[in-house]
């Protein structure tokens, strides 16, 4: 006889079935809720909450000066089929009307909007301080797509790429001819080959690196000294060879000085960026680099009252070193001696100590300066020249901020004691960063964030998102937080540029303390890098706040510009943001797949509009 639901209630039959059913329902709800948020870190949840409650963004820094057919990827292990969705989406009207065009002009294949704004550059009243190599972003942001160089092909994989790249990918022959005697780079058939030479590297960069450590053994490459800045880096062979010693180098040079040298570096798989010490601060925090290097970098350190060297002093860690290899160090002609005397006076005025000076067997010399660890030398100055910077005036991150003519304050803890040096590498990657805020819960949040990213990378990113990691070398985290994403990838053959958006909490010092590199940036503008320079772009809950200030189409155009054909995009965000971005990516002929309702994986193809 059939049993009705009503009879079950009335006769109180099968109580076990009711209890069991209730337990199943509760367990199901718990799993669904946990599935949605199991991959969120504390910082991610804070971002989601801020977006959902429409928390206004932080006050922006000062503005810049005014100048008049899709394939569906298959899931790999770690994700069940039901969690994977091909995101084809119905394009909204604004996206459906997009009609992409190629950027025009003879230099379109290397177009960098904020560095190639010729209208603004021509209107500059002066170029004396390299103003023409600084950022001048066009308004509105251009929505053209950069063309591919003729003959472009998938880059040579790391580590082979350190020593050779495809010529057709970076077809710039002038540097080969200009620097052939110094052995920077040479052309060999279809390849550009990098022998490891340089202006100051007569016996090769490897011997030069060893020579520095022999001159001052306390430098301890890869232990005490982990994060360095190479000013005027050439093709970044210095930083490339230091990777073998567990040292990561931010190599930089201006655009078009020595034709495409930074593009060569990034094509090789070596960290590098476009920058210049001109009239504005570099986009790094105070007191973060363990060592700064300059080998014939063509910077006039005593210009404008010593502003360029005071900028290095700002970003150099207390107790950190400046290695300067240039002709004034070891030549005695009148011009070089004049430069040397000016450098002696300037370094003395900012309390740098010359801890070593030597010449190698080839007659190439260098001097190593050390920044003080305490303020005692500054306090003994009879003259306030240069003066100490007023700490109250430091309101913003170094983004479109003029250079100082003062000595930056040394960091101190809450008791006024000098800040310690970070732990030796690799312990500093996971130990408490010395610049971590002093709030009671910040240390716990840091360790939980580290643990979260370690689990997420191993359980999901490396094996569950159908990404071909063997093809990836250059990685960018567009919203890096504490740098947990990069830290969790430390055993992979990749390097990560950690970006802290200027309207997000400033955690960039923490990233450097961990032995990683990064920069400030505003994603409503183009990045200081050449097209096709990154293999993977990653962002975690970046788009919500960002799209309150600029159009998601412009953000997608910039992603398309800097990502290589065949490169990957990993986005963690709300479905609202994913639904906005996906149609734009499809209009660019990218393939996209959604995992777990929060991981959007995009892959850029070779398509360009005709």
Q: Can you describe what's shown?
A:
- With 610 residues, the protein is an alpha/beta fold.
- Helix content is 28%, strand content 16%.
- The protein is built from 19 helices and 18 strands.
- The radius of gyration is 27 Å and the shape is globular.
- The protein starts with a helix and ends in a 7-residue tail after the last strand.
- The model is unreliable at 1-18, 29-38 and 48-82 (pLDDT under 50).
Major β-sheet annotation: 8 strands, mixed
Helix/strand-derived category reads: alpha/beta
Q: What's the helical proportion of residues?
A: 25-40%
Could you tell me the strand content as a percent range?
15-25%
Largest sheet, spatial ordering of strands: 1-17-18-16-15-12-13-14
Give the beta-strand count: 18
Shape call: globular
Which ranges are low-confidence, i.e. pLDDT below 50, for 5 or more consecutive residues?
1-18, 29-38, 48-82
- CA radius of gyration is 27 Å
What is the number of helical segments per DSSP (H or I, 4+ residues)?
A: 19
Mean pLDDT: 86
Distance between the termini: 73 Å
Q: Can you summarize this structure?
A:
This protein has 610 residues and is of the alpha/beta class. The chain has helices at residues 5-11, 15-37, 42-52, 93-96, 118-122, 174-178, 205-215, 237-242, 261-268, 307-315, 327-330, 334-349, 376-379, 442-461, 484-488, 508-513, 543-546, 552-562, 575-587; strands at 84-86, 164-166, 186-188, 191-193, 227-231, 248-253, 272-274, 289-295, 316-325, 353-359, 365-370, 474-477, 495-501, 517-521, 534-540, 563-572, 591-595, 599-603. The protein has 19 helices and 18 strands.
């Amino acid at each position: 006889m059939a049993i009705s639901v009503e009879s079950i209630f009335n006769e109180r039959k099968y109580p076990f079935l009711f209890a069991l059913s209730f337990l199943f329902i509760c367990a199901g709800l718990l799993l669904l809720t946990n599935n949605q948020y199991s991959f969120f870190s504390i910082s991610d949840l804070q971002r989601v909450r801020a977006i959902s409650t429409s928390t206004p963004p932080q006050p922006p820094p000062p503005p810049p000066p005014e100048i008049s057919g899709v394939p569906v990827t298959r899931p790999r292990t770690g994700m069940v089929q039901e969690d994977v969705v091909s995101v084809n989406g119905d394009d909204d009207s604004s996206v459906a009307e997009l009609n992409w065009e190629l950027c025009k002009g003879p230099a379109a294949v290397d177009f960098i909007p904020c560095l190639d704004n010729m209208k603004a550059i021509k209107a500059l009243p002066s170029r004396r301080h390299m103003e023409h190599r600084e950022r001048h972003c066009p308004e509105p942001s251009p929505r053209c797509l950069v063309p591919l160089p003729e003959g472009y092909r998938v880059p040579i994989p790391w580590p082979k790429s350190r020593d050779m790249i495809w010529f057709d990918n970076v077809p710039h022959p002038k540097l080969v001819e200009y620097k052939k005697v110094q052995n920077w780079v040479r052309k060999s058939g279809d390849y550009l080959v990098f022998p490891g030479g340089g202006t100051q590297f007569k016996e090769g960069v490897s011997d030069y690196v060893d020579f520095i450590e022999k001159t001052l053994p306390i430098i301890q490459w890869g232990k005490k000294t982990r994060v360095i800045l190479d000013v005027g880096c050439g093709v970044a062979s210095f930083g490339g060879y230091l990777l073998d010693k567990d040292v990561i180098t931010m190599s930089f040079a201006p655009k078009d000085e020595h034709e495409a040298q930074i593009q060569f570096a990034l094509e090789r798989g070596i960290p590098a960026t476009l920058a210049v010490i001109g009239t504005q601060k570099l986009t790094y925090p105070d007191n973060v680099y363990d060592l700064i290097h300059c080998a014939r970098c063509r910077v006039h350190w005593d210009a404008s009252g010593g502003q360029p060297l005071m900028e290095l002093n700002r970003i150099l860690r207390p107790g950190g070193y400046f290695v300067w290899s240039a002709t004034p160090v070891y030549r005695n002609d009148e011009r070089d001696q004049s430069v040397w005397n000016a450098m002696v006076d300037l370094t003395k005025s900012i309390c740098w100590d010359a801890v070593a000076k030597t010449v190698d067997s080839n007659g190439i010399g260098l001097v190593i300066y050390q920044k003080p660890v305490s303020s005692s030398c500054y306090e003994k100055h009879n003259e306030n020249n240069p003066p100490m910077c007023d700490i109250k005036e430091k309101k913003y991150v170094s983004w479109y901020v003029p250079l100082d003519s003062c000595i930056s304050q040394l960091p101190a803890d809450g008791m006024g004691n000098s800040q310690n040096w970070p732990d030796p590498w690799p312990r500093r990657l996971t130990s408490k960063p010395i610049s971590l805020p002093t709030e009671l819960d910040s240390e716990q949040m840091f360790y939980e964030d580290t643990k979260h990213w370690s689990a997420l990378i191993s359980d999901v990113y490396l094996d569950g998102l159908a990404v071909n990691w063997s093809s990836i070398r250059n990685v960018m985290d567009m919203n890096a937080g504490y740098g947990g994403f990069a830290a969790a990838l430390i055993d992979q053959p990749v390097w990560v540029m950690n970006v802290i958006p200027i309207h997000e909490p400033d955690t960039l010092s923490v990233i450097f303390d961990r032995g990683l590199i990064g920069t400030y940036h505003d994603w409503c503008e183009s990045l200081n890098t050449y097209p096709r320079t990154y293999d993977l772009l990653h962002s975690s809950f970046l788009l919500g706040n960002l799209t309150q200030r600029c159009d998601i189409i412009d953000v997608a155009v910039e992603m398309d510009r800097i990502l290589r054909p065949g490169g990957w995009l990993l986005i963690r965000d709300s479905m609202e943001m994913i639904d906005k971005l996906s149609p734009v990516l499809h209009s660019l002929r990218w393939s996209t797949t959604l995992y777990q309702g929060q991981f959007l994986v995009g892959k850029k193809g070779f398509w360009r509009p005709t």
